[in-house]
User: What shape does this take?
Amino acid sequence: MSRKATRYVKIDARKCKACWKCVDECPRQVIGKIDFWFHKHVMFRHSEACIGCRKCIETCPHGAYVER
Ligand code: SF4
Ligand code: SF4
Assistant: This one.
């Protein structure tokens, strides 16, 4: 499964500021972190588990998630 999209949402990693709010908000632990010094953003770790609840879209202050 994709690291940039689930059935319901897509990530625009360029907009991610690595605040990790969405990681805590996702009820299914779908979202993971790429966390290197100059390379920090979210990716989908378990995209197949996404239920389309939209919490990630509503949580991100930088608009990094969009509906598919
Ligand atoms: S839509 Fe819901 S389940 Fe899917 S990644 Fe976003 S917060 Fe997690
Ligand atoms: S809430 Fe937005 S800016 Fe913060 S980690 Fe998630 S995608 Fe990145």
